[in-house]
Design brief:
elongated; 16% strand; alpha+beta; 369 residues
Length: 369
C-alpha cells in the first residue's frame, strides 16, 4: 500500500501547492488594492509595504488561505481520480474507502497540527508587529515606550489579592513600587509596599519592604514593619500573567479581542487570575483550539462527494462539497457570535461545527463502503 499512498499524496500535493500560491497571490493583491490609502496615510515605503505583507502572511495562512487551498486541491485530486475511474479500480482491488482516505487524513492531520502551532506561536506576534510597523512614525509611537507599562492595577480573584504597580518592565518582569493588598486566614487585612520586586526561581522577591497588618478589630491601629527584602512563594502571579492582564483588560469589545489575535497561552494566563471571565473570551479560547482542525473536517466532508463513483455526477458532488464547506465556515462564525453572547456554552459554540460536519461526513462516507 505504500506505493498507493505515495501516488495519492503526490497527486494531491501538486494541485494543493498551486491552489496555495494562487490564493496567496489573490489575497495579497486584493488586500493591497483595498489598503493603498492606509499605506499612503502612514507614508510607508515599498520595502516597508513588502515587509508588512511578509509579517501578515501567517495570519492569512491560518484562515482562510490554507483551508480554502486544501479544500480545492483535495477536490481537484479526487475529481481527477474519479473521472479516470481510478477509485473504482482501487476499491475493486479490495481497498476500503477508509484505507484509501488514509493519506488524505494523514496530510490533513499534519496541516492541522501545523496551523495550531502557527496560530499559537506566530500569528499573535505577527499581528502586533504589523500594527507596530504601520504606526512607527506616529506621535503616539514616538512618545510611547513599549518596554515599560505604567500604573498597572488588577485583582487576582482566585486568591483575592489586589495589585497596584507603578511601573512594569515587560522585558524582565520587574515591578517598580508594587503595592499588594490581601486578607489573611485570620481575617486581618495585610498590605505590602516595596521599592521593587523581581521574580527568580518562580518566587517573587520584594526589596525594601514596608508591611502593614490591620487587625480585624474596630479601631485597632496597624503596626508597620520594615524588611530589606522578603520572599513571597505564595504569590502565584507571574510576569506572563501580568502581561496578559494588561493586554486583555484594555480591550472592551469582541471586535477588539478578535482583531488582537490573542494566543491560547495569553487567554489561559488571564483566566488564572480571574475566577469568572466573559463568555466572549472563553469562546475565543475554544475557537482557537478548534479552528485549526478544520483541515481534517474538510477531508471528512469532501470524501463522500469527491470520491463518489458510478452514475453520480462527480461535478455535482464537488459543488455540493464546496457549498457544505462554506456553510461550515459560516456556522463557525455564527457559533463564535452565539457563544460570545452567552446563548451557547463557549465550548459548544466553538466545537459544534467540527463535531457536526465531521459526523455528517463520516455518515455519508460510511454509505460508500
Amino acid at each position: 500500500m505504500r506505493l498507493l499512498d505515495r501516488y495519492l499524496t503526490r497527486e494531491l500535493l501538486i494541485p494543493f501547492g498551486y491552489c496555495l500560491v494562487g490564493f496567496l497571490i489573490f489575497w495579497v493583491s486584493s488586500d493591497l488594492m483595498g489598503e493603498v490609502d492606509m499605506f499612503q496615510r502612514y507614508k510607508l515605503t515599498p520595502a516597508e509595504i513588502t515587509w508588512y505583507y511578509v509579517i501578515k502572511t501567517p495570519e492569512w495562512l491560518v484562515f482562510p488561505i490554507i483551508p480554502a487551498a486544501w479544500l480545492l486541491g483535495l477536490l481537484y485530486a479526487m475529481v481527477h481520480h474519479a473521472r479516470h475511474n481510478e477509485f473504482i479500480a482501487i476499491r475493486a482491488a479490495g481497498v476500503s474507502i477508509w484505507r484509501l482516505a488514509t493519506p488524505y487524513l494523514a496530510l490533513g492531520t499534519l496541516l492541522s497540527v501545523g496551523l495550531l502551532a502557527l496560530n499559537e506561536l506566530w500569528v499573535p506576534r505577527s499581528h502586533d508587529e504589523a500594527e507596530a510597523l504601520l504606526k512607527q512614525d506616529t506621535p503616539e509611537a514616538k512618545r510611547g515606550n513599549k518596554r515599560w507599562t505604567t500604573r498597572v492595577g488588577f485583582t487576582n480573584s482566585r486568591w483575592k489579592r489586589t495589585w497596584y504597580v507603578e511601573a512594569f518592565d515587560r522585558e524582565t518582569g520587574t515591578l517598580i513600587r508594587p503595592h499588594v493588598r490581601w486578607t489573611l486566614a485570620t481575617g486581618n487585612l495585610y498590605e505590602l509596599n516595596a521599592e521593587k520586586a523581581v521574580r527568580t526561581n518562580d518566587v517573587w522577591m520584594f526589596i525594601n519592604v514596608h508591611e502593614l497588618e490591620y487587625p480585624a478589630v474596630a479601631g485597632a491601629v496597624p503596626m508597620p514593619e520594615y524588611k530589606p527584602f522578603r520572599l513571597m512563594p505564595e504569590f502565584t502571579e507571574t510576569p506572563e500573567q501580568i502581561e496578559s492582564e494588561i493586554k486583555i483588560s484594555q480591550m472592551d469589545t469582541l471586535k477588539e479581542i478578535r482583531k488582537s489575535q490573542l494566543s491560547v497561552a495569553e487567554i489561559w494566563n488571564y483566566k488564572r487570575l480571574h475566577r469568572d471571565v466573559h463568555p466572549k473570551l472563553d469562546t475565543l479560547l475554544h475557537t482557537r483550539l478548534a479552528a485549526p482542525w478544520t483541515c481534517i473536517v474538510i477531508v471528512l466532508i469532501a470524501l463522500p462527494f469527491g470520491a463518489a463513483t458510478g452514475r453520480r455526477n462527480v461535478f455535482a458532488g464537488v459543488s455540493s462539497s464546496i457549498v457544505i464547506c462554506f456553510a461550515y465556515f459560516i456556522l463557525l462564525q455564527m457559533g463564535l457570535a452565539l457563544g460570545s453572547g452567552g446563548i451557547l456554552y463557549p465550548w459548544l459554540a466553538a466545537w459544534l461545527p467540527n463535531l457536526l460536519f465531521a459526523a455528517g461526513g463520516i455518515a455519508l462516507t460510511w454509505k460508500l463502503r
